Fold these 2 entries.
Entry 1:
Amino acid sequence: MGSMRLGGLVRGSVLAALVALALVALAPGVASAVPARGTIAGTVGDSGGDGIPAQVLFYRDMGGGSWSLVHPFVDTAPDGTYSASWLTVGTYKVLHRDQFWPATYIERWYDGRAGLSEADEIVLTDGATVTADATLTAYCRIEGHVTGGGGDLSGVDVKVYKWSMYGYWEWTKSASTDASGTYSVKMLNPGTYRVGFSDPSGRFSAEFFDDAPSIGDGDDVVLAAEEVATIDAELTAPARITGTVTHLGFPLSGVEVRASRYSTPTGNWDYAGSVLTLADGTYDLGGLSEGGYRVHFRDPSYRYLDLYYDGATEWDSATRIDLAVAETRSGIDGALRRYGSLTGTVRSMATSAPVAGVLVRLYYWNEPWSSWSWLGDKSSAGDGAYRFDGLWPASYRVQFVDSVGNYATQYYDLAPTMSQATSVTCDYDTVTSGIDAALLEGATISGTVTGVGPVHGAEVIAWREDGSGGWEHWVAYSAPDGGYTLRGLPPGDYFVTFNGGSGYACEVYDGVHVGRSEIYVGPGADPRFTGATSVSVTEGEAKPGVSAELEAAGRVTGRVTYDTGGGAYYPQVHALVPDG
């Protein structure tokens, strides 16, 4: 009893406080402390005029085109009515939506608008009551019953597609059949749809309404406002394609076998299913409906060439396979060809010991460009071996580069330049072996780069003609003491260029000044290289003393303005040096 009385006293105290606050609010001079409020009320009903359970949300104009959701929203009463009397004065937009999910009714903004930007504004003043009624139309539905093998089918996937703006049927909603075989796809807007049925267990073949093997062959389901369409399906036992995939008579596992079915209405070959071959090379591709098919054999690892049944290398030449309902077609085999391979071993010329970590670069003859194009790199293993796979019939050349610099760069077969290299031919189902390298000891060129003291980080490039009108180059950078060493040089004659950075003029050994851009495209780009001193090295020779004392670079300064007198923003200024 004491507890109940305490509760009564507390409630009495709270009531007295509320009364006191109300009296204060009514006193002269303090009424402005209470926010001005108004009411938005109305009824939410369906198209038949009956009230429905709905949520009503209020968005307040915050200025600058911004609308903010005001909490809390309100739920309608059982008869569909609502009233929000706690709203402060201002401009609002109102959203009416279904209370439940998945929704039965399509949401609408007042007054019957589809989106916030189109909604009507409600100007709420102090003490005013504004009516904002709404009539919500029901979503469309597609429902039905799926059977097969004389009984109800549970767990069947039912997918609904709608034609997209990109020109294809796009999945939009889905459902699954229950134990009785029934399904219901909800929350569909009025429009045109197609419906597909597929059995994940693979016991029955997939189909589209009405008994169509592909979506392109399917019939349209056109839904008017609030329409419920009944779409039933009776699935049939699937057809199957089986076979074996081999290479030179040996089974291949993990090869993808893909079937595509011909669609008569569209003239397209639509994807129908795929499977991977087993360890013994066999496959069993089920779940197919009756119709005409083409089969594609594809190796996901790209070791083998694509093939189309029956022995075709191009899609248009593939043989069509016509399947009847529930038919099993065996003997759809594929004998794949393997891409070519190229192998070799990298050794030292002096000791015949294998050399690990050598970069092996492969080039192929690019007929349209009439040049040798880089294809890929490998690194020699601990035993000096390397291997390239996935090669098509073509002419190749191989380069060997020791990034450490102990050995000179070389091309197969013992050639110093690309133009002198020996070409190698590869073919399908063939391993081209014995493309070996016997590396010569690399020569070195070294020296010191100075300016106002040692120059750290200067770029030093050794240039050598490649025998075909171009230039090959090797790069090194100077240490803090200005010293540098160019390593791994084949025997020959070299021009050596020095770039000390923006504070120094560039030059070529010995003391010939060149433009900064010219040193990056080779000596042939600047006639002033002809006055430079070349540096000759033999196999394994160390050539010291190739040094440079760089001159401080001159500067040209000024100001670039527009004809109106203002300074130009980030102008490009070029300094040109006359030829000769």
Entry 2:
Amino acid sequence: MVSSISDRGVAKRIFLSLLVAGTVLIGPGSLRAFADANAVIGMNNEGVKALNAGNFALAIQKFEAALQMDKGYQLARENLAIAHNNYGLQLAKSNPQEALKQFHQAYYLNKTNATTAQNVEGIIRMLGKDPRDFKTRIAMADQARKSGDFIGAIVEYAEALKIKDDPKTHVNLGDVYRVRDNVDDAIKEYQAAARAGDSAEIEVKLGQALQAKGDLPGAVAAFGRALGFNPTDSDTLDALQAAWEDALKKDPLAPDNHIGLGQALQFRGDFGGATAEYRQAIQLSKGNNPTAAKLLAALPDLIKKATIDKHINNAADLITKKLYVPALEELKLALAQAPNNPDIWVNMGICYQQQEEYQKAIDSYQKALQLDPRNSAAAEGFKACTQSLQDKMIAQSEGAAGDAYKAGRYDEAVKLYSALVTKDPKNAAYYYNRGAAEQMLKQFDQAMADYNTAMGLDPKNKTYSNAMESAKEAKVKPMIDAAVAKHQAKDYAGAIDGYQAALAIQPDNAPLWFNLASAQYAMENYSRARDAYQKALEVDPKGQIDDLYLMAVIDEHYGKGPVAQGEYLKYMSQAPNGKYAAAAKERLTALNRGDAPQKIKGAAELAAEKDADDAVAAAANLNNAGKTEEAIAQIQKAISLQPKVADYYAVYGSYLQKLGKIDDAMAQYKQAASIDPKNPKNKEY
């Protein structure tokens, strides 16, 4: 909303613009209107008194009464304009919308008054609108027209046309003039509309206005131009017939009027009425009217054409309603009378096309093209139906291929999809479907080749990439199963070959990399095992996190203590509850306190450890059974297998001590202490 300060500023500018312009009777102290000494002038003088007294409503009433007495009294007209203008000034602040109506009235009465024009623009700005915007003025005009304020509509449409010459606006302004019975101005606006952008509607309105004025020749000419835009327009035909009937009323004996009415009836399809009018024209011309005779002679052909057109139009109407069977019946009736009409053949093609009878449609379009090689509708229809027929045949082939696949006839499905690939080698779905059938036949290499082609044609389709992974998994599964069996049988070399062959097909299979690493580890090829563990970790960082610990173990084996420390620490942070969390913590603690890196125990060493542990367990059982001599033999075996285990010597010493061989026992205790001097138990001995 405009602020009160802005309102006062606008109102002041309106008032000052009137003062500068020198318009009379703008308020107290302004110039006085002139008055004469007769009855009409007396009424004008009463209006002047009311105007000078600021009673603008009464002044308007008096000036309008004076103009009713004498419509040509210019002074009353000028004073009426001033009254409306000053009334608008009075209302500007309290009721700007009503003020606008008063300014409209003033401007309509005196369109040359620039001050009033400024006041109109000023009050529009007070309403928060742009008076220089075409759409704004049109919206205001439409609103005024809708509310019955035709003067306001006239002013606003006229001002909009100053901004933009628009045929529709000329028509709207002409319509308002017609409502006010201002036929001459309406005609001018319709003519201006025709110059700006003619149409059947404009010519009909112009013809009606000319007819209302009594200009029948001009009206008939306008209706003729309207028919040029739309020969079947019912409003135009009605207007043309009415114009000739009006002419005939004025001069019923003029042959030309009968010819004109006959043509109007002929345009409407009333051939009987046209015949009667042409014959009447000939009779009034005493049997000699070449124009009427020519028109009468042409009627049989026109009737035949009209009959054909009727069938064609009926068919067209039925086609729009998608009633193709009855439409074809209408077209066949038309075709019986005009077999060489390409339009009929085109419409028949459309009917067959919509019913998916593509071969019949193609035949119809071809017939139309034989009759008219340049018929674009026939050419487009022929092309579309040819493609549709091919698509239909392909769809049937697709259905047959799909049915064969669902029924488990995979060989047949492969053949059918291969035929489809030949027809459309860029259709990714065909390669995918053929690949699926090949996969079911365990033809994995062929399936993967087709999936790969499908992925190349449609890279964003996840279905194809998923199918490729499925085929790879299916191909490598027996390879992996065989490799795992060899692994379990400790045929590590064979297992490694199998894992590597599977990885060549499925390089992103993290468990495969882990299995390969495990086999290499078992063969004590720790360097390659570490590489395989690392690859598994790269492929699946979360699922293969335990591989990080195993990598650290290998790095520690090769004397890379700091590297191993970092890996143990990283493993513990990422897998605090992991499988090897406790072992990692133990090794990290050992390395942090300066212990030497730990070597990996090979298979032979692990076997020796197991045999030694078994011997110790056997010794313990014998000793408990009171067979200490036999227990000593078992502990000696354990020491021979694992001579660096301090606990074995301590156990040996305890057995000797039990037998009373103190010196020999002491020697074994000393040996235990020398091997593990930090163990407090060894110091006790």
